[in-house]
């Protein structure tokens, strides 16, 4: 016999504005699953989505910036990292 695991049920608190906005979404579960998966897939690899760097990460980031910069692409306006060896060029 196959072992069929039931999906886990996760709950969270939402403020009134978020709860009201979700009322307009036809399939809230699918919407929330997609939003969470997108957020997890697009998290910052350095801070891992916390928005805060540890002192050790700041040290490594500072060393990285010695040969790299954060810049905005003139063509697409995306903020990205550029290696000094690439002469600041955005590679699409």
How do you describe this structure in short?
The protein is an alpha+beta fold and 92 residues long.
List its traits.
two-stranded antiparallel ribbon, elongated, 3 helices
Helix content: 25-40%
Low-confidence stretches: none
Classify the beta-strand content into a percent band. Answer: 5-15%
Rg over CA atoms, rounded to whole Å, is 20 Å
What would you say this structure looks like, in words?
- The protein has 92 residues and is an alpha+beta fold.
- The protein has one domain.
- The protein contains 3 helices and 2 strands; from the N terminus they run H-H-H-E-E.
- Strands 1-2 form a two-stranded antiparallel sheet.
- The protein is elongated and about 50 Å long.
- The model has no long low-confidence stretch (mean pLDDT 88).
């Amino acid at each position: 016999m196959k072992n069929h695991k039931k999906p886990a049920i996760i709950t969270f608190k939402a403020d009134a504005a978020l709860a009201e906005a979700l009322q307009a979404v036809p399939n809230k579960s699918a919407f929330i699953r997609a939003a969470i998966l997108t957020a997890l897939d697009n998290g910052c690899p350095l801070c891992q989505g916390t928005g805060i760097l540890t002192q050790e990460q700041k040290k490594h980031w500072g060393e990285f910036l010695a040969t790299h910069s954060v810049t905005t692409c003139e063509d697409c306006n995306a903020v990205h990292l550029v290696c000094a060896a690439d002469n600041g060029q955005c590679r699409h």
